[in-house]
Structures are given as C-alpha cells and as structure tokens.
Amino acid sequence: NKREFLEFAENCRLDKFSENLIVSLEADIDLTGNEFEGIPIFCGMFEGNHHTISGLSIYGEGSAKGLIRYLTEGAVVQNLSVKGKVSPQGSRSYIGGIVGSNAGSIINCRFTGEIKGKDYVGAITGNNEVSGTIENCEVEGEIQGVHFVGGIVGENLGVIRDCSNYANVNTQVQKNNLEVSDITIEALTNSEASYTVTDVGGIA
C-alpha cells in the first residue's frame, strides 16, 4: 500500500538496504498529495506486476530526479506504469519519469505525463549509462528541456530496444529572442550558446 511504499522509499536512502532486494508491487498506488522526492537509490529488483503508480509530483530543487533517482548497475525495474509530473527547480539535470540516472535495466515500463528539466531530460530516464538497458518502454505526454532531450532518454550510452515515443518533445519551447546585433562568428559556430536548444530527439 502507499504507506509501505513511502517507508520503502525512505529506507532506500541507504544503498545497502536494497541490495539483492526484490520489491513486488501488488496494487496500484496513488501518490497524489504526498511529499515524495523519489526513491534515492535502488540496487535490487522492482517488479511492478503491470500496476500503476500515479500522482507522481516532483518539484524540489536538484538533479537526478524521477520515481527512482539512481538505478545502479545490475538493478532492474520492470512491468511498471508511472503517471505524473517531474518538474524540479535549480540545476535540473538528469530528469526522468521512471529513473533520473540509469545504469541498470528498465523493461516493459510506461510513463504518462509531463517532464521538464534543463540538461539530460527523458520520459523514461535522463541518461542511460554504458551498462544501462531500456527495453520495450513507451511514453506519452510532454517533455521539455534545453540540452540532451529525448522522448525515451536524454543521453544514451547503453542499449535502447523496442521502445516507442508518443510524447511531444520541446514543442512548447519559447521562441529564441536573437537580435541581429548578437550574431557573431563565435555564436554561429558554438552550438552551446545560451540561446540555443541542442541535442534533441524523438527517442534519444
């Protein structure tokens, strides 16, 4: 139930807590109205059993934000749907709906909702490390970011397989207000200029 889930999330502040742990979700959980900043770190197996965690609302300052902030190498999240909004303040890097920063495996998961960040922004995970695998995942909703923004993952260094994106990616980004007097050779050749939006894709 919700109380047990929130207790589990609090215990995951210690990475040793979830080593070799198997978590099995046996019902849908609605987090609406709860102060929840994500599971800090998860090292085990999270089996969603095709249930849904809804009402996810993450707004606090910082980076590596998502239902799970860090999924470690060898850890697995599977058969889970998440609905909600992840829109933190501050640095806003590594922002995802399921996982903030992924080094494990995310399999057969779905995110529906809104993701907003700055760098490394995706509806499943903000970044997928070399050891990371994202397989048979699907997203729907709105995704907004500045650098490294994708429907499934912001930056991919690992494996993405059989995934589908039905979300809008950066379709509401404000129009760049660039004056002719601002154009210089340096501005034209430097894709990281402050007024540009770069590295954006439907999947990654």
Alpha carbon gap, first and last residue: 34 Å
What portion of residues is helical?
under 10%
Q: What letter string, H or E per element, gives the SSE order?
A: HEEEEEEEEEEEEEEEEEEHE
Shape: globular
Q: How would you classify the quaternary structure?
A: single chain
**How does the helix and strand content classify structurally?**
mainly beta
Your description of this structure?
By secondary structure, this protein is mainly beta. The protein contains 2 helices and 19 strands. The chain has helices at residues 2-11, 185-189; strands at 22-24, 29-30, 39-42, 45-58, 68-71, 76-86, 93-95, 99-102, 105-116, 119-122, 125-128, 133-135, 138-144, 147-150, 153-156, 159-161, 164-165, 168-169, 198-201. Strands 1, 2, 4, 6, 9, 12, 13, 16, 17 and 18 form a 10-stranded parallel beta sheet that branches. Strands 3-5-8-11-15 form a 5-stranded parallel beta sheet. Strands 7-10-14-19 form a 4-stranded parallel beta sheet, with no helix packed on it. 40% of the residues are buried. The model has no long low-confidence stretch (mean pLDDT 92).
